[in-house]
Amino acid sequence: MAKPVSKVLVINDEKMVLRSLTNGLNSAAKHLDNPFGITFTGVTSAQEALDVLGTDGDIQTVLIDDNLYALNGAKHSEQKSALELVHCIHNLRPELGIYIMIDEAKQDEVVDVLFSEAIEGYFYREERDYRGWFRIIHAQIRDKSRTPFYDALHDYVLMAKDAWHTPGHSSGDSLRGSPWVNDFHEFMGEHVFRADLSVSVDQLDSLLHPTGVIEEAQALAAKAFGARRTFFATNGTSTANKVIFQTLLTPGDKLLLDRNCHKSVHHGVVLSGAHPIYLNSSVNKKYGIFGTVPKKAIFEAIENHPDAKVLILTSCTYDGLRYDLPPIIKAAHEKGIKVIIDEAWYGCARFHPAFRPTALEAGADYATQSTHKVLSAFSQASMIHVNDPEFDEHSFRENFNMHTSTSPQYSMLASLDVGRKQATMEGFKLLSRTLELVSELKANINASGVFRVLDLDDLLPEEIKHDGVQLDPTKVTIDITKSGYTSEEFQKELFERYNIQVEKSTFNTVTLLLTIGTTRSKVSRLYDALMRIAREARPPRRLHRAPDIAGFTGLKFLPRDAYYVAGEMMPMIDDEDHPNPAMFGRICADQIVPYPPGIPALVPGQVITEEILSFLLGLMRSHKRTEMHGVVFDGYVPTLRVLTQAEMSQLKPLVE
Ligand SMILES: Cc1ncc(COP(=O)(O)O)c(C=O)c1O
Question: In degrees to the nearest 10, what's the CA dihedral of 247, 249, 250, 256?
């Protein structure tokens, strides 16, 4: 098994001193217990230090001589003050531990100046206590690489206790040896069952009331992700969003949201009873891709609804578009509006400068991340990060517990702990490699002459071209227009002939997701497949665009009020298969979501129009397979649940 390598970068502008420091520290590292493979390497200028930190993913810690502080200015143009350097390093790689070497005489002055920065500690230069310094640095690396929950789980499994508690498979004993189901045990592996434990085991803490190893693991995650508090969620970001909504919003509270938000956000609207003000995202019709909500529309909504409690946006989007968040969050905060950013697709961003700022760095109060989507956690394992200065922990806890199973899956929690450790210890290195693979893949695909990777400019609809939107490079969208395949045929070809499954498609694009788990051989296999398909040179086909999503019509009642009526089922079509005119003007009781892309065409409380019905029926009849969540079939007739006249007369209509 590969052993860890941990480099410590020492920065001192006097070569002789630097040499004696690194020699002394390396000698200590050699003679003391050194399980993390710590070695010391030196540079003499701040600029060199930043260059090394920008490329060497094995650096874990930085040791800065505060003399740089004194040498700032004309004498050393490449030099920065220690304070400036700490600031730059923290911006570049916030996961690194930073220590400062100081003069005893200047102690107070330096400590005061550096106090607010992310400093792990100080060493007196003159003491030259190399073994002591090594021990401290070793302890810091040890601390941030700890996995308290996973360790406790691992140790408990090794203790081989007899289980007289749930789950019923009792460490897999119910399955093992069974002539009928032993294959499941064999396939999944012994430890899946042995590690499937319950809250009866005290040592493993309680997700609903953490005071032990779960609390410690969450605190380590908060530090790693730059949050005041972090909470592990075992039902995905779908649940994380609902928990925050129910914490921040009470019935009737105004909420600004992108209509294109994930369906869990719309469910959160129903559960919380909020009054949603929908913002329309931009659409790139050429590729059938949704962009961000135009900045102007967000600013206008903030101005027009200063009484809103919350603004929620998705950044980055499924296609990798991310907002220029700082000015948006600032504008919302100026009106006292809390900001939630759904970072379901962006959990890795903290660990490489190419992806930052993260939502929290941009000032968001809450960020929800599907750790499982882009880091090494099991499906459903998500995190809720909180930086809200007015965080109401009691209310949050009640809502968190309302949505959380009393039997959470412990492997999922362990994977969050391990996923955080990996991101902290080697995220920069792995993401740097992923970015290299992205560049190679893009160059190769574009050289095919048939396929083309869409860049930011291609993806941005006109109305957001000047909004400072950026593209997450790990989401690679390929234009397949010239290939002679429809996107369904193309996906089928990749899957059946080349064993490749892609993330998603539109009528003329496919999107690939590259993560820290993408390997060079996967890239080669994909490239090989694309080249073969390109060489076969099918004549280009006319690709049919999916119908444009119908415009929003307006809310008559709060989504929650409309949802909780009994309603009546009404056919969407009349006897001649046309949109049913009796339905025009009626109020929908459910959320109707064509999936993909998962944007509700109707929400509870919304007025149904001919245009919306035509859009939904058009989708149902098109050749592209679309699930239609919320539509109920009565035989072959699609029906929707709508409010009855009697129900409408009893509800309070909304004043928008
Ligand atoms: C923007 C967005 N938010 C939230 C979610 C839900 O995340 P999870 O699958 O972790 O429940 C998704 C899932 O695709 C998503 O795309």
Answer: -170
pLDDT tens digits for 12-21?
Answer: 988 999 999 9
Instruction: Determine whether the shortest distance from the Cβ of 318 to ligand 1 is under 6 A.
Output: yes
Q: Is the CB of 346 under 6 A from ligand 1?
A: no
Give pLDDT, residue 78: 57
Q: Where are the domains of the chain?
A: 6-144, 208-424, 429-535, 559-650
Q: Sheet containing 475-479: which strands, arranged edge to edge?
A: 452-453, 475-479, 509-513, 504-505
Pick the CATH number of 6-144 from 3.10.20.90, 3.40.50.1820, 3.40.50.2300, 2.60.40.10: 3.40.50.2300
Question: What is the atom index within ligand 1 of the atom nearest the CA of 372?
Answer: 10
Q: Determine if ligand 1 sits within 6 Å of the CB of residue 370.
A: yes
Ligand 1 proximity of 43 Cβ (cutoff 6 Å): no
Give the H/E segment covering residue 322: strand 321-322
369 lines ligand 1 (CB under 6 A): no
Segments in the chain below pLDDT 50: 70-74
Closest C-alpha residue for ligand 1 atom 9: 236
Structural fold of domain 559-650: Ornithine Decarboxylase; Chain A, domain 4 (3.90.100)
At 491 the pLDDT is 94
Residues 332-390 have pLDDT tens digits of: 999 999 999 999 999 999 999 999 999 999 999 999 999 999 999 999 999 999 999 99
| Ligand 1 in reach of 371 Cβ (< 6 A) | no
The domain at 208-424 falls in which architecture? 3-Layer(aba) Sandwich (3.40)
Distance, CA 311 to ligand 1 centroid (Å)?
A: 17
pTM over 0.85: yes
238 lines ligand 1 (CB under 6 A): yes
Cβ(292)–Cβ(317) under 8 Å? yes
At residue 71, the pLDDT reads 46
For ligand 1, whether the C-beta of 266 sits within 6 Å is: no
Ligand 1 pocket, residue 342 CB under 6 Å: yes
Q: Which atom of ligand 1 is nearest to the CA of 373?
A: 10
- Cβ atoms of 100 and 81 within 8 Å: the answer is no
The per-residue pLDDT for range 175-188, each reduced to its tens digit, is: 999 999 999 999 99
Give the per-residue pLDDT at 72: 45
Measure the CA–CA gap between 572 and 193, rounded to whole angstroms.
48
Pocket-testing residue among 245, 258, 264, ligand 1, by greatest number of atoms within 8 A of Cβ: 264
Which CATH architecture describes the domain 429-535?
A: Alpha-Beta Complex (3.90)
Cβ of 344 less than 6 Å from ligand 1: yes
3-class secondary-structure state, position 81: coil
User: Closest Cα to atom 7, ligand 1: which residue?
Assistant: 237
pLDDT of residue 648: 96
Model pLDDT, residue 74: 39
Residue 309: Cβ within 10 Å count? 19
Distance 89 CA to ligand 1 centre (A): 32
Query: What's the one-letter identity of residue 23?
Result: N
Q: Confirm if 146 and 418 have CB atoms less than 8 A apart.
A: no
CB 11, CB 64: distance < 8 Å = yes
